[in-house]
Fold each of these.
Amino acid sequence: MYDINKVREDFPILGREVYGKPLVYLDNGATTQKPRMVVDAMVDEYYSVNANVHRGVHFLSQQATELHEGSRETVRRFINARSTNEVIFTRGTTESINLLAFSFGEEFMSEGDEVIVSTMEHHSNIVPWQLLAARKGIAIKVIPMNDQGELLLDEYEKLFSERTKLVSVTHVSNVLGTVNPVKQMIATAHEHGVPVLVDGAQGVPHAAVDVQDLDADFYAFSGHKVYGPTGVGVLYGKEEWLDRLPPYQGGGEMIQTVTFEKTTFNELPFKFEAGTPDYIATTALARALDYVTALGMDNIAAHEHDLTQYAMMRLKEIPNMRLIGEAEHKSSVVSFLVGDIHHFDMGTLLDRLGIAVRTGHHCAQPLMQRLGIEGTVRASFGLYNTRDEVDILVAGVERVSRMF
Ligand code: PLP
């Protein structure tokens, strides 16, 4: 059973007030709040285990290493990777994509080669490819979308050429909430012999992800968006691909032997993990994944689906409401504009009512250009939000709208 009151008790921050009003936190797309057990895991490890991992013979180092490598196994299980060799710890989705753009680009792309992305990408899945384009002269092709915010799969098919080397597409849009049919898109890419990177920053927190079922070649996500700590994320990659990619950064941990003439690299996954990892954060990430697993990803998805449907229905009651992103398959993100009220004004006034939403371009300026707008107000729901909070949001938006 999904006991929302009990769930909320796990998140101390939800009990606080802002401007004398109870906090209504609807900015989960940007980052999620942390359950007590996640923060406790960090404090406990600092107080009772802390030592650098992998290199020490002493007790604490071995215990820290066990925790860190145990966390890798937790991530493996959570996304159903075949092996922990396929789980690389990074600082987050952004670093995961940059890692892949660099390493894949180095090894497999040259001038005139192409990468396919979509109209609804976050900047972190656009700019790394532009950096690669500047370095190597590759081209970026863009999958268009319809006005509901769904990718045009026929057009996607047409983008493939013999120069296509990679598809890099978001699982879920952080602006529109669209859940892209990535399994189908991966199958299409594979028919053309092209591997796929999925940006799962907004996918992993909201529904069960099985990388083997998707047949994703690479999958990236951030810990802080799935109730874990900041500063840690994951790049999943099929072992056969990771084996063939060169390292991204050099340093400790990623080497086997070093002389001034030549260095040999460590095995997977350490080849891609130069330097001291944030082992405190990996422990806490594993506790966050344990937490959502115990609640049940299907229960979380159902709860958030209910909230999203309810929010869309209620917001539509407001005069001059424009919902942005009405894809058939939609995750728990609701973007909107009311009349010609500036998104920033709406967000600022809602904040005074204790309601935390995000405003602006949401790091997706090309998508804003496609929509012909500068920005939106975005409410994004997490596992602890309630229908009552949706009602507070709707009342707040109505109140602000009347003021204008
Ligand atoms: N991709 C998507 C779809 C996102 O929503 C975000 C963050 O909002 C990112 C990538 C970047 O994530 P991070 O800043 O955690 O690296």
Amino acid sequence: MTEESQRGFIHVYTGPGKGKTTAALGLALRATGANMKIHMVQFMKGRRYSEIDAIENIPNFTISQHGRDEFVSKENPEKIDIDLAREGFNYAKKIIEENRYDVVILDEINVAVDYNLIPLEDVIKLMQDKPEKLELVLTGRYAHPEIIKNADLVTEMLDIKHPFQKGILARKGIDY
Ligand code: ATP
Ligand code: MG
């Protein structure tokens, strides 16, 4: 058994305030500095966010997107949204089982679970069966209590102030 401080932990970044995906990207950037290999799996995202262009220039850091550039309806998701999310989940499961990375980030997976695109039990099983040394990061609002229970490190972003409240829309390079 690996010593406690030697094993990889499970992080959850959740809550309504800004900074969840940014925190995961920051963690990944730092990890590249220690020669760690990172993959970010983005759920429910299909737009070319700036992190995709940024990551192209960073060694050992890759990203894949599994979603459309469309809003997903929580009440009535399209089949394509469910299919893409499950495809993303299966991909994540595969790279985790193959132990190909030191850090795997499941960006917005909490939302995909909350919208019933991915079954909660499958995510819990993935968390419980992860390779011991893997650092696993789950982001997104509405983290399920079971996901929180199975994590080692949980941070909830509070929304104290956001320019959106003054009608300022998302800005390239800062928000996307
Ligand atoms: P980021 O990707 O900037 O770290 P996030 O991952 O914490 O944000 P998400 O819930 O994934 O937040 O939402 C993504 C988008 O919504 C981003 O454009 C982000 O700036 C914006 N956003 C995040 N929090 C808020 C908020 N409290 N009010 C308005 N817009 C927000
Ligand atoms: Mg996010």
